[in-house]
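Tutorial handout. Part one gives the primary structure; part two gives the three-dimensional structure as tokens.
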Amino acid sequence: MGKIRLKEIDTRAPKNFDKEKTKKDIADLLEKLDELQNLLYAESKHALLVIIQGMDASGKDGAIRNVFGKLNPQGVEVKSFKVPTAEEAAHDFLWRIHQHAPLKGIIQIFNRSHYEDILITRVHKWIDDHTAKKRMEAINNFEKLLQGHNSTAVLKFYLHVSPEEQLQRLNERIQNPRKQWKYNEEDFKEGKLWDTYMNMYEDCFENCSEVPWTIVP
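Part two.
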């Protein structure tokens, strides 16, 4: 796979996109997914890790709710990684991540993930490029470990939104009472670093692609 250039990938759905047909297709897929989840849980020989990355307001929560909200909650776990605690920061960066690797029979979703440790940390220059490259190597080995030794399928998605759409959605969080719980002033500050984030994401895609990324408009 050639280098991913995010500016060359449209953030909107294709022109021939049929929203109503897609809703029906998704409903059919969710029925199949429900059946497969039951088999996964009953057999307890395999696990699934779904990694969802994206800028603030790219739709991560909505994607999780609309896809996995229909499944049996006993077999689905969601983890969002925030700023490391003092205990977590005293360990290697993957220590807190590994604790949430999925059990056999379980679908584990990471709403943001270990990739934050090579994204926001580089954007704000909390780590240097040498450290970032070492972390990328560790991430590749970690994902190999999950696949090879714990029969865990790993799926990675980047939700691709434009800076204009992001700003519109962030402003909506201020104006819409139902979305005000999501409002965070820091999101606007991070949005000003858009180009740097895109560069770091592209470097991440290039160096951590042994498990391929899916770019979702």
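Part three, for discussion. The mean pLDDT is 94. Residues 100 and 197 are 26 Å apart (CA to CA).
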